[in-house]
Specification:
The chain is an alpha/beta fold and about 160 residues long. The chain contains six helices and five strands, in the order H-E-H-E-H-E-H-E-H-E-H.
């Protein structure tokens, strides 16, 4: 991979226990053509091991963004958010909640913990694809992430 291509590589940590959602997100991102390395963990305990580079994730690259479900086994999404945002290094990584929960208390608690945004997973397949593409476009093409060169096309 050329140095120029490496600058455009994005590391995404997907914390999701639903295999169907994982597969669908993988396919949508693969079709997009963006250089994304999607790292997948199935629960909050694995997410924190990944983020702290504990075995078996000792050689994992730090993610540019974290996409997190709230309803996870072993350690829920709120606990993960709290740990990430309390860590002086990890707190700079944007955390995007992508959840099936529409419970106002869940969403409010996530924002109270300083999550960057909450997105409700659509049940309709076409809408799900659209939302994942919009999330990808905004977070990887529109925003400026810490430590990444901007991919935005400058207007002349």
């Amino acid at each position: 991979m050329k140095a120029r291509d490496q600058l455009k590589q994005f590391e995404v940590l997907l914390v999701e226990d639903n295999p169907g959602d994982v597969r669908l997100i993988e396919e949508i991102l693969k079709e997009s053509g963006t250089h994304i390395r999607l790292n997948i963990v199935r629960d909050g305990v694995e997410a924190m091991a990944f983020l702290h580079r504990e075995e078996p994730y000792a050689h994992a690259a730090a993610p540019d963004i974290i996409v997190l479900d709230l309803n996870l086994p072993r350690k829920n999404g709120h606990e993960v958010i709290a740990e990430v945002k309390a860590d002086r290094i990890l707190k700079r990584i944007p955390v995007i909640v992508f959840t099936g929960s529409e419970v106002e208390e869940d969403i409010s608690k996530a924002y109270d913990l300083h999550v960057n945004c909450c997105i409700i997973k659509p049940f309709n397949l076409d809408r799900f694809i659209y939302v994942v593409r919009q999330m990808q476009d905004f977070w990887l093409n529109v925003t400026k992430l810490p430590g990444k060169r901007s991919t935005r096309v400058r207007e002349r």
